[in-house]
Amino acid sequence: MAHHKSAKKRIRQTERRTAVNRSRVSRIRTYVKRVELAIAGGDKKAAEEAFKIAMPELQRGIGHGILHRNTVARKVSRLSARIKALG
């Protein structure tokens, strides 16, 4: 357990940031899952629409430091390729 005032504050901040970050990661996963479900269903139009909504969420993840930019680039590339293959 922390004994200094600054260490106690750090613990409070960490708990708060962890909750926010978990929420953001969960939100990103939800949007990506919607794209994957549309792809699995074979509906190209729905997959493209879901992908358009998921892209900004993934980019926001980079901005907030949740995801690495290369991770997002890889995910976007793979999803895009899978959507194109539906044609």
Describe the structure.
The protein has a single domain, classed as Methane Monooxygenase Hydroxylase, Chain G, domain 1. The protein has 87 residues and is mainly α. The chain is elongated, with a radius of gyration of 18 Å. The termini are far apart. The chain contains three helices and no strands. Helix content is 85%, strand content 0%. The longest helix is centred in the N-terminal third of the chain and has 37 residues, at 5-41.
Low-confidence sequence ranges: none
| Structural class by sheet pairing and helices | mainly alpha
| Average pLDDT for all residues | 96
Radius of gyration: 18 Å
Task: Tell me the name of the CATH class.
Answer: Mainly Alpha
CATH architecture: Up-down Bundle
Task: Give a count of the beta strands, DSSP E runs of length 2 or more.
Answer: 0
Task: List the SSEs and their pairings.
Layout: H1 5-41, H2 44-63, H3 69-85
Helix pairs in contact: 1-2, 2-3
Give a quick precis of the structure:
With 87 residues, the chain is mainly alpha-helical. The chain contains 3 helices and no strands.
